[in-house]
Specification:
about 20% strand; about 45% helix; single chain; alpha+beta
Length: about 200
Amino acid sequence: MLLKAGTSAAVALCLATALVHVLLVFLHVAPSNSLSRQYSRQVDAWVFPLFEQNWRLFAPDPESVNRQISARTMHTTPDGRVRVSGWFDLSGIDYSAVKHDTFPSHTAQNMLRRAWSSYLETHGGDDRPRSERALMVQRYLTNIAADRVTDHRGGTFESVQLRVITVPVAAPAEEPGPGASGAAPKPVETRYLPWWKVTSHGN
């Protein structure tokens, strides 16, 4: 009897969660209306960053740059000395996972890349969050970096910094002639993000 009641309660909870999820995603993708504007905060809190909806699955934007995202950590020892680690290649983990997996997961391919894209959309070039979503994206990116460093390096640290090296994808070689553009290749860009505090990482 108890088992049957527990099963019924679990099924009802799953159905209720699924209905709420569908409703919130619908409000997110639907044209702006009074209901979606009234509950925009709750909708955004549920949808971003895990359930974001966009058209990239059907019309993906081809990458025009390659990015190497690295992280380093900072730890203050009991005697007050500050220790800064070397750079750890976060994006290399994704490349390795995709290269050696016949069926790589969406997470392995896109978690870090989409987190960085969302960061660019919400922060621009000055690294200053100007909305609740920007703060959430910043925490999300920080947590990805801190978790990966902890999983692969261990150690104790209180702050993490990211470095993003952007290398433009070279254009196809053109045949010499009057129609050739002769455009100079775009330069490599290196961007250092601020040091961000993290909570309870390391051992």
